[in-house]
Write a structure and sequence with these properties.
The structure holds three protein chains of three kinds. Chain B is an all-alpha fold. Chain B contains twelve helices and no strands. The model of chain B has no long low-confidence stretch (mean pLDDT 86). A six-stranded mixed β-sheet of chain C has the order 6-7-8-3-9-10, with helices on both faces. The radius of gyration of chain C is 24 Å and the shape is elongated. The two termini of chain C are 38 Å apart. The chains are: A mainly alpha, B mainly alpha, C alpha+beta. Chains in contact: A-B, A-C, B-C. At the A-B interface, helix 1, helix 3, helix 4, helix 5 and helix 6 of A face helix 1, helix 3, helix 4, helix 5 and helix 6 of B.
Chain lengths: 277, 297, 374
């Protein structure tokens, strides 16, 4: 028994390290490749350790492709989606959590529908509607389409979190003379900061990885390309400069990985609150 | 101006707060769905709203059910679903169980294990495309060096290999979310249940089978449904990696929908495929959710 | 400061009536306790008074002003919640000053009042801590402090002691009463614990299923319960009940317990021949003399005090459901009665003892309506 007790942490630790090694290898490979000369990439056997890092790949990328434009477009879309989705979902989730509403169940239906709705289907009516409204070739079309997919789930996550906040907190504030709207901003939102963080992370990750909507609505105007659209265009039919592609991929992943590292700790708790329902 | 703090008017605030979401959902979910059903019943190339709508026709559905293409896509999707869903669920559950152990640096390990979730799908695809490159990819090199294969695999041009390369990327992207969900589920199992089982003499495996599994069944069910829905609808991974090829071996329903609408400009047909996909997704989530819900009741 | 009045107040959820015909007036400076088993509507009544729940019928007046449709913030009340409801993201100082800030008081005055209240409640060293860093008792005092800095017309308290451990609860109970006397603010206090009600209140309102059963002081409720429910609910252990027939023979009015005659008040002579439910409090049973002879089924010794259990004769028991008070007094056993005795006799299980039910201490209730018969 004593022997097993000593072995167990080692076993767990070794397994965790092994798993991390396997699942993170692609990310390591991306970084390594982005720092390599293109000629090295065709050498056999491949090098597994960094050697003479080529920082020039990044300037090569910026010179050859409008990477900065792609990046800014992705960022604009992500911020707009985040603001739009969070505003609407916070209000809706709060209403669902605190009021017995007659139409409340229909929101549940929307959440379920949005989870089942194929993106490739919804782009057809969206395309028709946006063309009518003159939004094709505008980033707003991408923003609206992304919000469709994000708002229902964000509402569900936030409602789960709001449900864990004792209602007496708001009652106390109202008795203290705070207005009901003021209560949301002064009490509910500060107290649910972790839930908001988890939901923001979810919104940001989803928005940042969108390919379908950008590919459908803004593919024809190159100045509106997002990172994903740009990177997918770098993967050519015959010859691909993998070091450039990996440099672009790395730079596209950095913001999302940074946000992820910062907000990940709230994720498990946020999902736990939501999934209990 | 209504005083919403008054007990008489407070419930009105609820309706006011939910109104933007309901209006938005009606405009961007309900109306588009109705519109796409409408388009699926028109023999139309590029659909429009308004007076120039085409007459009602079930031609798209006739084409769908008589063409082998639809059945091929359905079969590809189902195979993807079973393979990716099954593997990602097992791997995700294993990771969740591991991360639920108490060890030093656990939260850091959790961060690393679920990191692929944050990597954008297109980025994931290009990384894997490079790793699976048939001439210089590291994957082939590893397989060759370890003697598992004697010839490099042509992941891009061989139908079976292409299918499995899609699976690989999907599993890599999909397992972290499952892992987070299952970890949350594991952490909500009361410690007392394990202690009670230990006192009753249950060993590690018996505790896993009699405490962990029954508690986790509903969450596992939800996870499988969510993964299945994701596989059913995912577009970016397959499109960027293989565009549905070679010879349709990775053409899922989602790819077929896109191909019909924005490459062949047969929006009527595309809408029909999409509507069928939506119905399949609805059935899938309903059947699974209720079955798993019952098994715990 | 303010009187409180409920006029014909009712509350219904759809067709379900949670509270009906609620009439009550509370004097200025009075300490009023709503007590009853869970689900009796006491918290709902308090929340209606606070303006947190809609009043569906009647009206509520605070200080003579109709507040039925006013928001909680406009009623000049302060409330203490069971879980304290302290704002976790604010320090103790900001928690206590929040209400004043919402009312636009200048910072200097808020600070002065908070310091003052903190001194009264011995919270001064903790003013800059977050609630998380406080013990349960300290949090409870912060909740009280948040109420008193406002100097409101009325304090409302919803089971403020039930999250404290037993010892602290007794201590805080007296602290709250002292504080209330000192400030002289009209207070409404909700509890399920009749001991709290008896020890704290000027006026007790006993509720059951949304209906007021009786309003009165502790002594009134104890000595003259208006019905079977109040009789069983107030007192610890609760009143003993047995069923019997009122008899009148040769000018003696009595009922029987087992075979023994139990004399009753002469005023019951007119009801002779009818059945009734009789009640006697455990502390009113006199041991060692009298006509009733019975074997003790259980002797519980609490040091000086002893609780003696003995069987009710067959056919004279009543169902717990008839008292409709099974929940809060779950040690009640329908088959046996209890006597609470302080004397030097060493009682043994199974011992046969004599006892007397003094005529003046017997309560008589109608067998159908459960109302007290005078």
């Amino acid at each position: 028994m004593a022997k097993r007790k000593n072995l167990k942490p080692w076993g767990v630790g070794a397994t965790v390290i092994a798993i991390c090694g396997v699942v993170l290898f692609p990310i390591y490979w991306m970084i390594l490749t982005s720092l390599s000369k293109s000629t090295e990439l065709r050498s056999y056997p491949p090098r597994f350790l960094p050697h003479d890092p080529q920082w020039g790949t990044f300037s090569e990328l910026l010179a050859a492709h409008p990477f900065d434009v792609w990046f800014m477009n992705s960022l604009k879309i992500a911020i707009a989606v985040l603001v739009l989705s969070l505003t609407i979902s916070v209000l809706a989730a709060y209403a669902l959590s605190r009021f017995r509403l007659k139409g409340g169940q229909s929101m549940g239906l929307f959440i379920l529908t949005a989870k089942m709705l194929p993106g490739t289907l919804i782009i057809i009516p969206f395309f028709v509607i946006f063309r009518q409204m003159g939004l094709i070739g505008s980033l707003w079309s991408v923003v609206i389409a992304q919000a469709t997919m994000i708002i229902p789930f964000a509402t569900w996550m936030l409602k789960g979190y709001f449900d864990t906040i004792p209602v007496e907190l708001e009652q106390a504030a109202i008795v203290d003379g705070c207005s009901p709207i003021g209560t949301i901003f002064r009490i509910v939102l500060p107290v649910s900061a972790p839930g908001l963080a988890a939901t923001s992370l979810y919104c940001f990750v989803l928005s940042w990885s969108d390919f379908l909507f950008a590919r459908t609505f803004v593919v024809t105007s190159e100045s509106l390309w997002t990172l994903n659209l740009g990177i997918s265009s770098l993967k050519g039919e015959w010859i691909t400069d993998w070091n450039i592609v990996m440099a672009a991929s790395l730079m596209a992943s950095l913001p999302i990985i940074a946000v992820f590292l910062f907000l990940e700790r709230y994720m498990v708790g946020g999902l736990a609150a939501g999934s209990e329902k | 101006m209504i005083d919403f703090s008054s007990p008489r008017h407070r419930h009105k605030l609820g309706y006011l707060l939910i109104a933007p979401a309901l209006i938005m959902m009606a405009l961007i979910i309900v109306y588009p769905i109705l519109l796409s059903v409408d388009i699926s019943f028109q023999d139309v190339k590029i659909a429009r709203i308004g007076s120039d709508r085409k007459p009602f026709s079930i031609e798209n559905y006739e084409w769908l059910f008589t063409s082998g293409e639809f059945y091929n896509s359905l079969w590809v999707t189902v195979r993807l679903l079973l393979f990716v869903g099954g593997t990602a669920l097992i791997f995700g559950f294993a990771c969740a169980l591991l991360l639920n152990e108490k060890f030093k640096g656990r939260s850091f390990a959790r961060l690393l294990v679920i990191l692929p979730w944050a990597v954008p799908e297109v980025v994931a695809v290009v990384i894997w495309a490079w790793m699976l490159d048939s001439s210089f990819g590291v994957f082939n090199w590893i397989l060759l060096t370890t003697g598992m294969i004697s010839e490099p695999i042509a992941f891009a041009s061989d139908p079976t290999s292409a299918f499995f390369s899609v699976c690989l990327v999907m599993i890599w992207k999909g397992y972290p979310f499952i892992c987070i969900m299952l970890l949350a589920g594991l952490q909500s199992i009361p410690e007392e249940q394990y202690q009670a089982a230990s006192v009753d003499g249950a060993n590690v495996f018996q505790r896993f089978w009699h405490v962990t599994i029954p508690n986790m069944l509903p969450v596992l069910g939800v996870c499988f449904v969510m993964t299945a829905l994701w596989v059913f609808r995912d577009f970016a991974i397959i499109f960027v990696l293989t565009e549905g090829g070679p010879v349709g071996s990775t053409k899922s329903l989602a790819i077929m929908t896109f191909e019909q609408s924005f490459q062949f400009f047969r929006m009527g047909r595309a809408a029909a495929v999409g509507v069928i996909t939506l119905i399949l997704c609805a059935i899938l989530s309903r059947a699974l959710v209720s079955r798993f819900a019952k098994s715990v009741a | 400061m303010a009187t409180i009045e409920f006029n014909q107040v009712g509350k219904s959820y759809g067709s379900v009536e949670a509270i009906s015909d609620f009439n009550l007036s509370i004097e200025d400076g009075e300490f009023c306790v709503f007590v009853g088993p869970s689900g009796c509507g006491k918290s709902t009544a308090l929340k209606m008074l606070a303006g947190l729940e809609e009043t569906t019928k009647g009206n509520i007046l605070i200080g003579g002003k109709d507040v039925t449709d006013l928001g909680p913030g406009k009623r000049d009340i302060a409330m203490v919640f069971q879980n304290y409801a302290l704002y976790p993201h604010y320090s103790v100082r900001k928690n206590m000053g929040f209400g004043l800030k919402m009312r636009g008081y200048p910072a200097s005055e808020i600070n002065a009042r908070v310091e003052e209240a903190a001194k009264i409640l011995e919270l001064t060293p903790y003013l800059d801590r977050r609630p998380k860093a406080l013990s349960g008792g300290q949090r409870q005092r912060v909740a009280l402090g948040r109420a008193i800095v406002r100097e409101p017309a009325a304090f409302l308290m919803d089971e403020p002691l039930s999250n404290l451990d037993a010892k602290l609860r007794v201590h805080t109970r007296s602290e709250i009463v002292k504080l209330q006397r000192r400030l002289g603010v009209t207070s409404v206090y909700v509890t399920h614990d009749q001991v709290e009600a008896l020890t704290m209140a000027d006026k007790i309102v006993v509720m059951k299923l949304g209906v007021i059963q009786q309003v009165g002081s502790a002594d009134e409720l104890f000595e003259n319960p208006r019905n079977l429910f109040v009789a069983g609910f107030i007192g610890s252990p609760g009143m003993n009940f047995f069923r019997g027939t009122i008899q009148n023979a040769e000018g003696r009015v009595f009922t029987t317990f087992g075979g023994a005659e139990v004399p009753l008040s002469d005023t019951l002579a007119s009801r002779a021949g009818g059945d009734a439910i009789f009640g006697i409090r455990p502390e009113h049973i006199v041991m060692g003399k009298g006509k009733v002879e019975t074997g003790l089924s259980l002797v519980e010794s609490l040091g000086t005090e002893k609780i003696l259990h003995f069987q009710i004769p067959a056919g004279q028991t009543i169902d717990n459901s008839e008292i409709e008070n099974d929940e809060e007094d779950d040690d009640r056993d329908a088959q046996s009665m209890r006597a609470r005795i302080i004397d030097d006799h060493k009682y043994q299980n199974g011992e046969t003892v004599k006892m007397d039910f003094p005529r003046s201490k017997i309560h008589v209730f109608d067998i159908e309506t459960h109302e007290a018969i005078k």
